[in-house]
Design brief:
Structural class: alpha+beta
Oligomer: single chain
Number of helices: 3
Shape: flat
Number of domains: 1
Strand content: 15-25%
Largest sheet: 2 strands, antiparallel
Radius of gyration: 20 Å
Number of strands: 4
Order of helices and strands: HEEEHEH
């Protein structure tokens, strides 16, 4: 785990996303986008390397960028045979 001073030093070297846009005046200009990123690990293990990388990324994100970590826990994998036999699983079934 990085110490707070190390995090700040590394964070200061990171740059926000930049996208080059074409304008009507036939000139290029650069737009900077900071925002919200949702990270989802494909593993449910507590010690998953992918989950650890997501946590590290959320700590090192540039100022103005938020990384929210979501989970696949509780979302059933698609299985057409189960759907045919039992219907759509309750966690993903439409309501109303």
């Amino acid at each position: 785990m990085l110490e707070p001073d190390d995090r700040e030093a590394l964070r200061s070297t990171l740059r926000p996303y930049q996208i080059r846009l074409y304008t009507d005046s036939k000139e290029w200009h650069t737009e900077t986008f900071m925002g919200r990123i949702i990270g989802i690990s494909g593993s449910l293990r507590r010690a998953s390397f992918n989950s650890m990388l997501l946590r590290a990324a959320s700590q090192l994100a540039p100022h103005g960028t938020t990384i929210e970590i979501a989970s696949i826990r509780g979302i059933p994998l698609y299985d057409g045979d189960v759907e045919s036999a039992e219907g759509i699983p309750a966690p993903v079934a439409p309501t109303g």
